[in-house]
Design brief:
three-stranded antiparallel sheet; 10 helices; 3 strands; 79% helix; 4% strand; globular
């Protein structure tokens, strides 16, 4: 019993530390941008890397290896930026621009992810819109018991969580757009071409996944043979294929297309990426001489 209580206490401490890390990073980023302090920016990136460590471990334990890979990349990226800020005086504006992008993204995302009262607002609206479209396509096919959408013709239900709102992608694109140095008119044009489109397409992604699950579109044994070990048996099989395979592939393709549109409107973003690539290659050459 004491061991169980001890483990619960450790888990609670871990959750508290993980929840605090993003806001510590935000504080460092704000100080860095106000006072143009490289060491503050570097500290913020190190703290953010700590948050990525927690996320990487959680995704790995849950068996979500795609997001484990993404989190590892963000972890490496954060540490690389912290290293550059701490060891070089070149390209100062480049690293402060990246810090500004991170700040905007973090301010938009982490209050929603860490304070349920705020996240629930977005989840609630997304749940209602998704259910409304499902009922337009097939009248009286679903009903809402927040945050769940229930089928009226079966015992199936789907919970709408924060990840179902596309807030991560919307926050990232908003940070990228408003974090670079460019005319406001083009920034607004890029924002309109990306963030509302992402949210709208995400609603239809939810509609596709829920319909595929409720109607059991992918319950065939052929899918089980093809994706053996990656999906659960029916009836969850249809959900896993629609959500974790088809919708994920489609979302990736769509985000690449939207990113291309943003790059076309804001070439400054591409300039930022190119400058960072040059800085990393130059540093690598210096270290390997």
């Amino acid at each position: 019993m004491q061991e169980y209580i001890y483990l619960n206490q450790l888990l609670l401490i871990k959750m508290m530390i993980k929840s605090i890390f993003p806001f510590i990073a935000i504080g460092f980023f704000i100080l860095a941008l106000i006072y143009r302090r490289r060491e503050a920016a570097a500290s913020g990136w190190v703290v953010f890397a700590g948050y990525c460590c927690f996320e990487t471990c959680e995704c790995f334990v849950q068996g979500d290896y795609l997001y484990t890979t993404f989190d590892l990349l963000f972890l490496a990226f954060s540490l690389i930026l912290a290293y550059f800020l701490a060891t070089t005086c070149e390209k100062e504006e480049l690293f402060f621009s990246l810090t500004r992008i991170a700040l905007i993204t973090a301010v938009l995302y982490f209050p929603l992810s860490e304070f349920s009262a705020l996240g629930d607002i977005l989840i609630h609206s997304t749940t209602k819109i998704t259910a409304a479209i499902l009922n337009i396509i097939k009248p009286n096919s679903v009903y809402v018991g927040y945050p769940y959408i229930y089928s009226t013709s079966s015992s199936y239900d789907v919970e709408i969580i924060l990840a179902c709102t596309a807030i991560e992608s919307m926050a990232l694109f908003t940070g990228l757009i408003f974090g670079v140095n460019a005319p406001l008119r083009r920034k607004l044009k890029a924002f309109i071409a990306s963030v509302p489109v992402i949210y709208g397409l995400n609603i239809f992604r939810n509609v596709f996944v829920i319909t595929a699950y409720f109607e059991q579109w992918f319950a065939s044994a052929r899918w089980q043979w093809l994706l053996h070990g990656f999906i659960r048996p029916p009836p969850a099989q249809s959900f896993d294929i629609a959500h974790s395979v088809l919708a994920r592939m489609g979302s990736t393709i769509i985000l690449i297309i939207i990113a291309y549109a943003v790059f076309a409107i804001l070439p400054e973003v591409l300039d930022l990426i190119e400058d960072l690539s040059h800085a990393i290659r130059r540093k690598y050459r210096d270290l390997t001489r």
